[in-house]
Amino acid sequence: MHYSSFVLISVLLCTACSESATENQAGEPSSVVNQQSASKAAGHDIGKPKAISIPEASRSYITVAEIRPQSFAATVQAPSRVEFRAKALSTAGAVVSGRVGKINVQVGDTVKAGTPLAVLESSEAAQMRSDVSRTRAELQRSQDRAKRQENMLKSGVGLEIERSEANFQLEEDKADYERSLQAARLLGEGTDQTVVLRAPIEGVVLRVDTSIGTAVQAGTVLFELGEPGALWIVADIFENDLPLIEKGAKVELHITTLPKPVAGHVAALSAAMQADLRRGAVYIDLDDHNLPIKPGMYAKSMIEAAGPKRIVLPTTAVLIKDKKQFVVYVETQDGLFEPRNVTIGQAHDGFVPVLEGLVGGERVVVSGALLLDSEASMLL
């Protein structure tokens, strides 16, 4: 009795499993993408992108096109700002330790090269000037001694060793005098302990970092000056867009304080990147150097980026995965599609240049790519 019950239960379980498998196979929609079988058909190994196939009935919902390199006259837009050129900035600081006794300028003043900016009172300066007088006197004594020893040797009453010692001392005193003279020249004009700080260039006082009575150390920067006519625009360009920009490219500039756009051109591209923002600086010269602009003003740069021929896709062809990876789908065989990571530039008028990842002659899904990847999102 127990044996018959066991056989009956086994038969019922086998029948149920068979029916469940049949129902799952029959209930699978024909429009579902069969990634596993397609991957096997394409011969892809584990770790490689899986090829995807779609049923014949669903292919009318996607558009595939063969791609070829073509000209792409795009415009790269970037936030920008007005800045001084590197050579248009200069600083003036304390050459010796001391105390600020007088300040002659304030921020915004226009000065000429050599204009007194401030006066320092410095005991160190007094010592340096005193050293000049001392070493000059020692040099004079050494010269007299060397001359005397030379005359004595010629007269037959001197010794060669004494003449050599006198000449050696003369050379040492010459070196000491030159060192003290060079140090005093760094002080510029002034007497005793006063040191006058002068403007190194003609320009505008941008910053005053001191006040009367402040004690300062040698090397402390006290003033910053800039040439108001030596300005340019600095645009921050995304890393992917930098290859699209060339020196000399035309630029349309929208500066916040000007009523209409002004023209410029790319003067230089930075060789370094801002590591945290993944942007590079592009320096733009203004065609009109008499515009009423000031450093720190904001602008928007629209840079002409007509470079060499490139693969260009409609933005509908590019998907975004994980919020940072750009993907397109390439038809490797009839009805068989493979995801491909690409590097793109800035989109323009519904199209985007592909900088890396595709070559001419490949067939790419340009519309309906979301049917192949439900986890991605559209570029635009």
From TrEMBL:
This is Cobalt-zinc-cadmium efflux system membrane fusion protein. Gene3D superfamilies: 2.40.30.170, 2.40.420.20, 2.40.50.100. It comes from Methylobacter tundripaludum. Keywords: Coiled coil, Transport. Residues 95-225 form the CzcB-like barrel-sandwich hybrid domain. Residues 125-152 form a coiled coil. Residues 231-305 form the CusB-like beta-barrel domain. It holds the Pfam family CzcB_C. Residues 24-47 are annotated as: Disordered. Residues 314-370 form the CzcB-like C-terminal circularly permuted SH3-like domain. One of its GO terms (molecular function) is transmembrane transporter activity. GO terms for cellular component: membrane. It comes from the Bacteria. Belongs to the membrane fusion protein (MFP) (TC 8.A.1) family. Residues 24-39 have a biased composition (Polar residues).
